[in-house]
Write a structure and sequence with these properties.
alpha/beta; FAD/NAD(P)-binding domain; D-Amino Acid Oxidase, Chain A, domain 2; 8-stranded mixed β-sheet; 25% strand
């Protein structure tokens, strides 16, 4: 993300007078420093500030990062994978909170977040895809999830623009969507109104004092002090200097390329709900926005830190989307983007205290960062203000990758 010049005025309401017990720390020390201003860092800061803590967010461009690329599917059911039943429980808990969370955030910020409860349709284009979808349906049913099997004709009745070759599909009315860009913008505003201080710079080194995280140094040399530090830097979370080896988050970047198209009024409604499929072994989805935008994604590429938009990636997405909806080639292509998902070894988030006292993680959400925003904010605010991680988040403590570490440890 681009660096903001050091003389740029910070946003936020850091000049709000505060009177609080700083526990013997200097009065200008924040209770919590959040490193990273993506949606996960922002929701952590907002929820924690709502509980009365003095919070600082360090990021050169708050609201940027993966939120600018993500499609915003809230797909707890259609994104179910074998072996991820524990993650499913967290996904469902967060999905249930989304309507109230979106309403509260819109009221707090005065901004719309694009939450739409229109459902999702997963379709199959050939016999193999149909068999795979049948297996997924069986897994969903065994997991107690609500999904309905439809014939190809029933799928086309719901979405007339679908290709005639669609062989069947799963209707999941409980999988919704939100606009991540609007969500990020609303979270920035809500943080400002809650008194969160923004420091427009990237942290380059963690400060450790007396064997405890104590703040960070920014790239412009600014030193920030805090009682607790949350590392929420997305795919960059593992690259912060000064973090002891045993506390470095095991997060890697996975590239995703996404397209955006505009649906002219003459074509509306092109789609009424999110449509997704597996085409030649690759996932493709189409997410219609209420403003007429159609998001098409996403590739999944293990290419390190590369964020180049490639002709091949664009071609593959358009080719697969065209097989689902032949009319898509008539739509104007308005944007191509590539971003990096932060992925942990088990594709589940890292939430809570690390092996270094005072350092906590909120990262590694992989493809579920937008979906897990409400539950992550609640869990992080709870552990930061009470020292206890909620039960629903305990399976996702960073200590699961360090079996020898004790479960209970000072925050």
């Amino acid at each position: 993300m681009p660096q903001i010049p050091p003389n740029s005025p910070p946003t936020g309401t850091a000049n709000i007078p505060r009177t609080r017990d700083t526990g013997g720390r200097p009065p200008d020390t924040a209770d919590v420093l959040v490193i990273g201003g993506g949606i996960i860092g922002l929701v952590t800061a907002w929820r924690t500030a709502q509980r009365g803590a003095r919070v600082t967010v360090a990021d050169p461009e708050p609201g940027g990062g993966a939120a600018q690329v993500a499609a915003g599917m809230l797909a707890a059911v259609t994104e179910l994978h074998y072996g991820e039943e524990t993650l499913l429980a967290l996904n469902l808990a967060s999905a249930r909170r989304y309507p109230a969370f979106a309403a509260e955030l819109e009221e707090a910020s005065g901004e719309r977040v694009g939450y739409r409860a229109r459902g999702t349709l997963s379709v199959a284009l050939d016999a193999d895809d149909r068999a795979h979808l049948r297996e997924l349906h069986a897994l969903q049913r065994r997991s107690g999830l609500e999904s309905e099997w439809l014939t190809g004709r029933e799928c086309r009745r719901l979405e007339p623009m679908l290709a005639p070759g669609v062989r069947g599909g799963l209707r999941v009315d409980g999988d919704h969507q939100v606009d991540p860009r609007r969500l990020a913008s609303a979270l920035v505003t809500a943080c400002e109104r809650a008194g969160v201080e923004f420091r427009r710079g990237w942290a380059e080194r963690l400060t450790v004092a007396h064997d405890r995280a104590a703040g960070a140094r920014l790239t412009d040399g600014t030193e920030l002090s805090a009682g607790q530090v949350v590392l929420a830097g997305g795919s960059l979370s593992g690259r912060l200097d000064g973090v002891p080896d045993e506390a470095v988050p095991p997060v890697r970047p996975v590239k995703g390329q996404v397209l955006r198209l505009a649906v002219p009024r003459a074509y509306a409604p092109f789609l009424t709900r999110t449509v997704r499929a597996v085409v030649r072994g690759s996932q493709v989805y189409l997410v219609p926005r209420e403003n007429g935008e159609l998001v098409v994604g996403a590739t999944s590429e293990e290419l390190g830190w590369d964020t180049t938009v490639t002709a091949g990636g664009v071609y593959e997405l358009l080719r697969d989307a065209h097989e689902l909806l032949p009319g898509i080639t008539e739509l104007p292509l308005t944007e191509t983007r590539a971003g990096l998902r932060p992925c942990s070894p088990d594709n589940a988030p890292l939430l809570g205290p690390t092996a270094l006292p005072g350092l906590l993680l909120a990262t590694g959400h992989h493809r579920n960062g937008v979906l897990l925003t409400p539950v992550t904010g609640d869990a992080m605010a709870t552990v930061l203000t009470t020292g206890t991680l909620p039960a629903e988040a305990l399976p996702f403590t960073p200590r699961r990758f360090s079996p020898a570490a004790p479960l209970e440890q000072p925050v």
